[in-house]
Amino acid sequence: MYVAAGITLMVYLILWVVSRKRSVEGRGIRPILRMASWIYERLSDFSGENKGQEPNLKKLKKLYPWKEAGQLLSQYYVEKLGIVLTVILVGTVLGTAVSLQAEGGRRLQSGSVIKRGDYREPQQKLDLSVSVEGYPKQVIELMVSGRVPDKETADQLEQEFWELLKVSSLSGNMSWDAVCEDLNLQQSLENFPFTVEWSCDNPHVVDDAGNVKKLAKGEEEKVTLEAKVTYHEWEWTHALDVTVITSLTEEEQFYQELEQVLLEQEKESRQKADVRLPVMFRGKEIQWEERLEDHGFTLWILAVTIGVVIFFLKDKDLDKQLQERHKLLRDAYPGIVHKMELYLRAGLTTRGAFVRIAEEYLRKKEEGKESHPAYEEMLYTCRELGLGMTETRVYERFGSRCGIREYVRLGALLAQNVVKGNQGLSFRLKEEAEAALKEQMQHGRQLGEEASTKLLVPMVMMLGIVMVLIMIPAFGTF
Predict the structure, then answer these.
(1) What pLDDT digit, counting tens, does each position of 53-70 carry?
(2) Which residue from 238, 163, 151, 226 is spatially nearest to 194, judged by alpha carbons?
(3) Considering 104, 123, 152, which residue would you say is the last residue of a domain?
(4) Do both 98 and 117 map to the same domain?
(5) Which ranges of 139-240 would DSSP assign to H, the alpha helix?
């Protein structure tokens, strides 16, 4: 993880240095946006004109018609890259923190010394990776307890504890007379205050941890397990006759005996501050390495993956924004047409009525009202009128920018009446408002029908649950 984090942070540092003087716009952290802007510019220089960006550009132009196309596309992709860079940076920092936390819990020191905790601390499991000359790397689990004081016991619970312990210690074996798998020699059971120490009269066949020696085919060994149950100053001893019928390879035999040596050394040094691991065994040099539960690198990989996914899925947000924009435009359409009809009846010209509606919206917006895409388009149209564009062209562009048939029809209607005059326009606008209102109501009914259809499945599921609740007690009476 530290290598990946170092490389990542070095890349970010280089990006920060080369982009620190850039001027950027958009939502996000400024240094990150500068880096994203530099990356986007380099990618654009490398790939040239990318026609794959055209669909997004069209959507952006519909959402922000008053902005220049190149600026829109650049800002959009810079913000996307900024999100990716932010996710990767956060993932790198979190991954490094997780790795440092895991490193702080390391117990193996000086290569072959395990530091014990205080006697108040519970036993801890260490995953030790063993490197032995001539053998592949192996992993051994070792339970290391803190320095413990004397203990007391309760006699009335011991017999019940022992019966349960015998059953759970069999693990996957059917009986003590036919042991073919490793035993589960537990040192304690939940809800019982006892500690158990296991020993065997032949540790080469069954060790204190319950590991069973694998014998040649057809052979069997009889051993006796001794369990010493303690609780404070009380102590009980139980014996179990075990028949082992299994087989073992040379490699497995080596690591089994090595693990037995570890358990014995750990037990013998419980009053000491350190546990000394052997550096030589059977004439072979041993190198020890503690396996830590470190998810830092996984977290970093996850952050990179999430960043890439966000980059490609963010384009769908444009579709959602367009759908929301079209919905707001349709909802506002009857009101806009109705206002136009009222102002025309009051004697205003088509241009005067259009400008009056836009000015009213601008005044309310300055007072704190939220912006609305339909009225923003009208404001943009008024600015075009102020720049000297012809009314006919402006109204047609207004309908085209809105992008839905209602506004295209309204723009065409206003453009035609600029040429023919306002005669009959108020009447046609009234008909248009009534038709738009009816269409809106029809769309609302359609949405209601769709919602009722979607509710059908959960209603059927609830009916099934009710039937089960009714039928179960009914069958229980027979």
Answers:
(1) 667 767 766 666 666 666
(2) 151
(3) 104
(4) no
(5) 155-169
